[in-house]
Amino acid sequence: MKWNRILDISFSRTPSIYINMKLTLKVWRQKNSKAKGELESYQVEASEHMSFLEMMDVLNEQLIVEKKSPIAFDHDCREGICGSCSMTINGSPHGPQTGTTTCQLHMRKFKDGDTIVVEPWRSGVFPVVRDLTVDRSAFDRIIQSGGYISVNTGQAPDGNAIPIEKDLASNAFDAAACIGCGACVAACPNGSAMLFTAAKVSHLNQLPQGEVEKTRRTASMVAQMDKEGFGMCSNVGACEAECPKEISIEHIARMNRDYVASIFGGRKS
Length: 269
Fold this sequence. Notes:
CATH class of the largest domain: Alpha Beta
CATH superfamily of the largest domain: Beta-grasp domain
Largest sheet: 5 strands, mixed
CATH architecture of the largest domain: Roll
Shape: elongated
CATH topology of the largest domain: Ubiquitin-like (UB roll)
Structural class: alpha+beta
Number of strands: 7
């Protein structure tokens, strides 16, 4: 009875007038990081007005009704903010629409009869937890190594009263837009986390509150990134192209300059 109530208000009960797409989904299924995974094919009907995750919800409801295991995938805000909706869709992180997270991708980007391949992020540093869900805790450890301000900046009003040059503030804000989804790693042929790390370094290093610890922060976060096993940047630019927040690789160049300064200028801060 409980499941029946849920299904009665679900997209699977959407009037047929709104269902205008029949799709074949090839979804990666894997029980855990040790198990062998494979693509499994499913047929699903959807509306062009659904988001990609709503379409996945419809598929999971079908699987539950059929008493099959639903597909595991991460999601939270579904507003393009949290970055947890990490899926590789037809070979592109977050799908075919640039500057868009998976949860904000709508089915009107696809056509009736399409075959859609859905996979998790492909990186040895992001082991599969189950199906489309991966462990991105390596990003958390990079942040913990220095992605914060530990100096005393006073109360919030005092901090906000510090004059900051407009260009610096704008660049810092652009870097702070990073949601840590990992699309940059999934897109990079070397599995590099340089764009993520650079964004987290750059948005703090450019502000007077964070500049005090700039050299220590940069050296520490780069060292942790290397320790996690991410690959090196080779300036392919795929990270910027696939980033849902369109963060510029200029931040990587800035981090490299700060890193060189931390080596030759000492690491006192």
